[in-house]
Amino acid sequence: MIPFIDLKAQYRALQSDIRARIDRVLEHGQYVMGPEVAELEERLAAYVGVRHCISASSGTDTLLIAMMALGIGRGDEVITTPFTFIATGEMIALLGATPVFVDIDPQTCNLDPEKIEAAISPRTRAVMPVSLYGQCADMDAITAIAGRHKLPVIEDAAQSFGARYKGRRSCGLSTIGSTSFFPSKPLGAYGDGGALFTNDDDLAKAMREIRVHGQDRRYHHPRIGINGRLDTLQAAVLLAKLDRFDWEVARREEIGRRYSQRIATTCPGVVTPTIPPWNTSVYAQYTIQVGQRDAVAAALNAAGIPTAVHYPVPLHRQAAFAGIDCCRVPLPAAEMAASLVLSLPMGPDLDDADQDRIVAALAASINENQRAGR
């Protein structure tokens, strides 16, 4: 069985560095907010090219912290995409605000900027695009629209850390950037983790306070917060992984291009990812669109090739949002994508032989479906 993402191979390449980093934490014993956390934040801020990085306990909590810092709450609205993991809409609703879903660009599966303005109301407090599958949404177009209405933009970059948009890095493109260090993400910890990025000094201060129960100094709490700290051990793992990250980003791009080239010549009717010329992708998932998806996935799985569907049910169709006024217009592109998308094994350690085997099995399943008339 080919792994969907080979975290074991990555660990083998970094084993001595990771163990040395973890051992240092075990020796100094500062398991919460230890020196590795500050070191990681400094390196990540420099990497993205912003003044502030605030690490946190997960990519879900980072979204919550960002909106809390912006004062978003009950009765407010946040415009976002319906085609993403539930955390994006979930955190909006958790604060008592309403997620207002806008359709996606069918080519990139990211939020369609042309649909945003019509969704803005007097209650709109922010726009939250998701940089899906490893490439950024069209952030300049989105921030221009938001700017005309004096709205902050939160980039949910859980899947795109390391990607570039017009030469700038994901997470440094808007009011606040948010990412995830879930183990399977392009930069993954060995547990949950996340980070926030901003050039706004006041927002950075607020977010730092919110992640530690709203305190600005010990036992003094000027605001309501959460327990949203990144563990020192996870910071240590991420620091070790950062030393290999540029190589991994380059490998992900190379593997993604190779997938697209081979699928285009051997798998008729399969739609490969569209990457605009101003974008790069870190391919958090390599996601195709294919008819008779379930039959194709079953054939691949039978051949020892795991697949996943990111995502089978758009957020506006989730029971959790029933009764919430979040779907005010038809969302045909999101619903179509949900019926077609299929993610193939992906990761920087995927070798050519396994990739060729995956593409051959995909081609065989397509041909079998065509012969069967499905």
Report the sheet-strand fraction. 5-15%
Radius of gyration: 21 Å
How helix-rich are the residues, as a percent range? 40-55%
* Largest sheet: spatial strand order: 1-9-8-5
From N to C, what is the helix and strand string?
HHEHEHEEHEEEEEHHEHHEH
Q: How far is it from the N-terminal to the C-terminal residue, by CA?
A: 27 Å
Structural class: alpha/beta
Separate helix tally: 10
CATH superfamily of the largest domain: Type I PLP-dependent aspartate aminotransferase-like (Major domain)
> Into how many domains do the coordinates divide?
2
Beta strands, count:
11
Q: What's the CATH class label of the largest domain?
A: Alpha Beta
For this structure, the CATH topology of the largest domain is Aspartate Aminotransferase, domain 2
What's the quick description here?
This protein is an alpha/beta fold and 374 residues long. It is built from 10 helices and 11 strands.
Tell me what the structure shows.
A hairpin with a 2-residue loop joins strand 6 (about 165) and strand 7. The chain is built from ten helices and eleven strands. It is globular and about 70 Å long. Helix 3 packs across helix 4 and helix 7 crosses helix 10 (about 350-370). The mean pLDDT is about 95. The chain has helices at about 5-30, 35-50, 60-70, 85-95, 140-150, 200-210, 230-265, 295-300, 330-340, 350-370, and strands at about 50-55, 75-80, 100, 125-130, 155, 165, 170, 175-180, 195-200, 285-290, 340-345.
